Amino acid sequence: MDDTGDITAQRLREFEARISKLEANVKTLAAAYSLARHGTRRIWLRPPLWTFEQHAPRPIRIDADYVSERPLADAPSIGIVTPSHNSGHFLAATIDSVLMQDYPSLRYHVQDGGSTDSSCEILRSYGARLTWRSEGDSGQAQAINRAFAEIGDCDIMAYLIPPPYLRESAGGVLRPGREM
Questions:
Q1: What is the value of pTM for the model shown?
Q2: Are 110 and 130 in contact (CB under 8 A)?
């Protein structure tokens, strides 16, 4: 009887060792399969950046109601400042993008940092449509602060650094009473 118990215990230990080995193999295979599947999924689902396979642009449709709407008489005042230093080749387009908005309560100031290019001539050409000053400063932050001090208190204040432009929409993007 002792022999039978020893043989049974021996076989039980062998089965446990085989089961442990099989479980380890299953875990290894599951991990390998998961990584391969995940890698394949990443390739299939990643966006096609830099492959120029995106959708073609669509023209913007603007409602007729939006085009015919005029700004309110008591529209909030908007102050926009542009810091500039030797950016004459961008400056006219930036200024035009702001002034073409045709907003009734717009205060626009360009703070030039003592440019040596054509910036001052460009600014003079706009006359009373904007205010400007050309003087040396210690950088863009100081130019923005000086410009905001120049335009005074406004309900909405923003700065626009050349070369970005305010995009043209139907009658301008600065519309009170509309979400932007």
A1: 0.56
A2: yes
